[in-house]
Each structure stands twice: as structure tokens, then as C-alpha cells.
Design the sequence.
């Protein structure tokens, strides 16, 4: 319910401030050649994101398997509540590649932390060109610092694996219930975090992530030019940073409303028309949902999975988690 309320409120706000006639006109006059190119950049983004995740998995699964599992997760996130897509792709890839669910899930945790860190850095880098507010820069810097601290904490856990396991074993002797809850979970999670102790591999993952965000900026620039010819690339980068942090908030499946409100709010701050910005946000959201949906639906159909059956499995897994 909180997520649905946030989405409903976000939609209400953006459509209240938007002029529907301007919105319709913007959709008619948009440069659809650039919108078509944005589908290509989305595919490139997915391929690079596959490289990021596969590197974090220490190359323990084929690239094609990682690619389709990634898209299955995005499809599930767009259709199911509780952000089950992250659990879904860990479950599906683990089953197909013969990897432990918790080991795969720990790599997704690292990926999400890296995403938030990059979003905070991007927001910090573009804010001076947008609003010039010192408080906003401090907020973005603080968010980036929290993400770095989170990665450092996970690194220490992975680096001191035997010590962590020994502490856990002592705790289970005092509280036997912990053995049932985490007897298999803790070792598997630590195995997944081991990539943080492999300096070269982790740097490769960060390099792929950097390229992935570069492709994301290119996609936003294309859509910005489609609706606002002459728009500055820094505005597109700022909108991406805001949207990436905005969709982390509770929302309905697919971040409907929250995504649109984030993009409209970011572009309104740089003085662009909110109605045209809403047309851009809706188009961008559709491009992303359609591209991941096609690959995700194909993969699920190929594996003989039904959405309802998978939902029940994932909800059960989430409750156990």
C-alpha cells in the first residue's frame, strides 16, 4: 500500500502540473528517429549490464544465461510487487547455472550499491550546472559516502570470511535458531561477496559499470534531443541521476509515477516545460519497459515459467529471506 500510494501521488502531481494539450503535441512533434535509436542504446545498456553482473558472478555463468536472467528480473520488477525482480533473477539464474541463491543475491546487492553510488556521484557532478545549491551538493556527497561505506563494510566481511564464520558459529551455540536461519545463507553470501577481495576483477566490474552509466547518459541525451532540440547533455545526466535515486523509493511495480515525477522534476529545475518533460519521461519509461519486457517474456516462455507460478515461488522465497 505505501508503494501504491507514492505512485498514485506522483502521478497525480505530474498530471496536475502538466498541460494535456501540450503533452499530446509534444508526443506528435517528437523526433521518432532519435526515439528509435534509444531502443538501440537500451539494448547496448543491457549487454553492458550483463557484463557487469557476470563479472561480479566471477564468470560462473554463460553470458547469454546472465543476459536473459537479467531481463527476466526487470520484467518481474515491472509486473510484480515487493521488487520481486531482484529475488527473481537470483532464483532463476541460480537454478539454471547451478549456483546457490544467496551467492547470486549477494552479487545483486553489490550491483545495487554500485548503482546508487554512481547515481549520487552523477548528481553531485551535475548539480553545480543546474541549481548551484550547496546543500544539494552536500546531500549528494553524503549519499555517495554512505554507498562507499556500505561497500567497505561488505569488503571487510568478505576479507575476514573465516572470522565471520567463527563468530557466527559461536552465536549459533548460544542461539540455536540462528543455525536454522543462516546455516547455509551466511557461507553462500560470503562466497558471493568474495569478488570484492579480487582487486582486478572488481575493478573490471567498476569499469563495466562506468561504461554502462555512460550508455545510460547517451540514451537520456537522445530522448532529450527528441523532445527538446538543443538541450544540454548535462541536463540529461542530471535527470538520469535524479531518476536513478528516485526509483529507489517505494512505489508500485515498474516505479510507475515515481520515475515520471523524478524526470519531470529534474528537467523542470533546469527551466524546461513540465508538459513536454512528461512526454519525454513517458516515452523513456516505455522504451525501457518494452525492451526488457520482450527479452524477459521470451526467456520465461522458453523456460516454461508462468507468471503466477513464479510469483508464488518468489513470494515464498522472499518470506524465507
Sequence:
Amino acid at each position: 500500500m505505501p508503494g501504491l500510494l507514492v505512485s498514485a501521488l506522483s502521478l497525480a502531481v505530474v498530471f496536475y502540473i502538466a498541460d494535456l494539450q501540450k503533452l499530446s503535441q509534444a508526443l506528435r512533434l517528437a523526433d521518432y528517429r532519435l526515439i528509435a535509436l534509444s531502443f538501440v542504446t537500451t539494448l547496448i545498456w543491457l549487454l553492458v549490464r550483463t557484463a557487469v553482473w557476470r563479472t561480479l558472478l566471477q564468470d560462473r555463468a554463460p553470458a547469454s544465461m546472465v543476459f536473459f536472467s537479467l531481463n527476466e528480473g526487470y520484467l518481474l520488477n515491472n509486473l510484480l510487487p515487493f521488487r520481486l525482480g531482484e529475488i527473481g533473477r537470483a532464483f532463476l539464474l541460480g537454478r539454471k547455472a547451478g549456483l546457490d541463491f544467496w551467492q547470486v543475491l549477494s552479487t545483486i546487492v553489490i550491483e545495487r550499491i554500485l548503482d546508487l553510488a554512481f547515481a549520487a556521484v552523477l548528481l553531485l557532478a551535475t548539480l553545480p550546472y543546474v541549481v548551484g545549491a550547496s546543500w544539494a551538493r552536500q546531500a549528494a556527497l553524503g549519499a555517495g559516502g554512505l554507498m562507499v561505506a556500505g561497500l567497505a563494510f561488505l569488503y571487510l566481511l568478505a576479507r575476514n570470511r573465516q572470522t565471520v564464520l567463527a563468530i557466527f558459529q559461536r552465536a549459533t551455540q548460544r542461539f540455536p535458531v540462528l543455525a536454522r536461519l543462516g546455516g547455509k545463507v551466511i557461507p553462500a553470501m560470503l562466497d558471493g561477496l568474495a569478488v570484492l577481495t579480487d582487486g582486478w576483477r572488481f575493478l573490471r566490474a567498476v569499469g563495466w559499470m562506468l561504461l554502462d552509466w555512460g550508455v545510460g547518459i547517451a540514451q537520456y541525451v537522445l530522448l532529450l534531443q527528441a523532445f527538446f532540440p538543443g538541450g544540454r547533455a548535462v541536463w540529461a545526466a542530471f535527470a538520469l541521476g535524479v531518476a536513478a535515486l528516485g526509483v529507489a523509493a517505494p512505489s508500485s511495480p515498474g516505479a510507475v509515477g515515481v520515475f515520471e515525477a523524478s524526470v519531470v522534476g529534474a528537467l523542470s529545475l533546469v527551466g524546461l516545460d513540465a508538459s513536454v518533460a512528461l512526454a519525454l519521461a513517458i516515452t523513456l519509461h516505455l522504451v525501457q519497459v518494452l525492451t526488457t519486457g520482450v527479452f524477459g517474456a521470451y526467456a520465461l516462455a522458453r523456460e516454461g515459467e508462468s507468471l503466477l507460478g513464479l510469483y508464488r515461488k518468489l513470494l515464498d522465497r522472499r518470506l524465507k529471506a
About this structure: The first helix runs from residue 2 to 17. The chain has a mean pLDDT of 82. Residues 2-316 form one domain. DSSP finds 15 helices and no strands in the chain.
